[in-house]
Amino acid sequence: MLELLVFVRHGDAEFYGPEGTDASRRLTKKGVKALRRGFPEVFKNLEGRDDIHIWVSPAVRAIQTAEVVGETLGIDPDEFDIHNSLYDQDDDEFLAELEAEGDGCVIAVGHVPFVQRVTLNLTDVDVPFSKGSVAAISFGGETLREAELEWFALGKDY
């Protein structure tokens, strides 16, 4: 059974992507700087774990955010798994993928309202996911429905 799910909302992104699509929007320089400043403290309690899987939306801003998470934890971007369910905001598909993952820790980098909605549905806690926010959800039972919010870091505080 999965032990920990860590949702990360992407950092501050440009309004328009170079290709004119939502998926091509990149992080701003300020956004990258804020994540690099805040993530070392936020993720310090995950350092040294060897069971972390980083899942990421295919959107450029999410991939760039995941790269900062990877830098922080020493995980190579080649090890990231792209999950369309994070960009498509498909709760059922995402939860099915989590169930299939097995044990360990999944860090999922995605978007609102998806990360906020799934966190609320799993924990009954309405977490305000500003850009760069991180929420850790632990699972203590036999199903994903037996979940508890472990900790939360508000992105704007970096």
Protein described:
By secondary structure, the chain is of the alpha/beta class. It has one domain (2-157): Rossmann fold. Helices cover 34% and strands 22% of the residues. It is built from 5 helices and 6 strands. It has helices at 29-42, 60-73, 84-88, 91-101, 114-123; strands at residues 2-9, 52-56, 81-82, 104-110, 134-139, 147-153. It has a 6-stranded mixed beta sheet with strand order 3-2-4-1-5-6. Strand 2 (52-56), helix 2 (60-73) and strand 3 (81-82) form a beta-alpha-beta unit. The longest helix has 14 residues, at 29-42. It is globular. It starts with a strand and ends in a 5-residue tail after the last strand.
Number of helices: 5
Compute the average pLDDT.
Answer: 95
Radius of gyration, in Å, reads 14 Å
The proportion of strand residues reads 15-25%
Distance between the termini: 32 Å
Q: Label the CATH architecture.
A: 3-Layer(aba) Sandwich
CATH top-level class: Alpha Beta
Quaternary: single chain
Which of globular, elongated, flat, extended, rod-shaped describes the shape? globular
Order of helices and strands: EHEHEHHEHEE
Give the count of structural domains.
1
Q: How does the major sheet shape up? A: 6 strands, mixed
Task: Compute the number of strand runs.
Answer: 6
Runs with pLDDT <50, length 5+?
A: none
Strand order of the largest sheet: 3-2-4-1-5-6
Helix content: 25-40%
Class based on secondary structure composition and strand pairing:
alpha/beta
CATH superfamily: Phosphoglycerate mutase-like
**Which fold name is given in CATH as the topology?**
Rossmann fold
